[in-house]
Amino acid sequence: MSDTADAVIDDLVDDGDIDITSWTDLDGLPDDIDVLAAQAHEIFEHARTWVCQRAGFRPSPICLLAPLAELMDVLAAGFTEVEERAVADWRSIRDAVVATTADLKAVDQMVADWLPVVA
Fold it and tell me: Which superkingdom (predicted)?
């Protein structure tokens, strides 16, 4: 293989990015998007569970940080709102990928139907 081909293969394998090198790669992209959306949900769930704990601000009745405990509910609501927006964005992107993939396949089939088959 050429150095260029080796570099392309290394990039596809090693960088962790989702690379689309063929229209057929689009078939698996919705599943990849679902994985990313699930990971985002886990991050927000972790934040709500562990970052937004009220108990940490109430170690004793005289703790000066106790009023901050009330803010944890506001912070948790903020995490929920950001998660809802992120999920909506992921859903929108996923729906667009599915629609675009269907359109590309339809155009490919239409072109294949119009062109003569060479034997």
Answer: Bacteria
Q: How many CA atoms lie within 13 A of 23 on its CB side?
A: 12
Distance CA 54, CA 48 (A): 11
Distance from C-alpha of 10 to C-alpha of 4, rounded to nearest angstrom: 10
* Residue boundaries of the structural domains of the chain: 24-109
Residues near 9 by beta carbon (within 8 Å), at least 6 away in sequence: 1
**In this structure, what token pair is assigned to residue 111?**
């072109």
The answer to whether 26 and 100 have CB atoms below 8 angstroms apart is: yes
CA-CA distance, 114 to 5, in Å (whole number)?
34
How much is the mean pLDDT over the chain? 83
- The larger pLDDT score, comparing residue 104 to residue 3, is at 104
HSE value, Cβ hemisphere, 13 Å, CA-based, for 64? 0
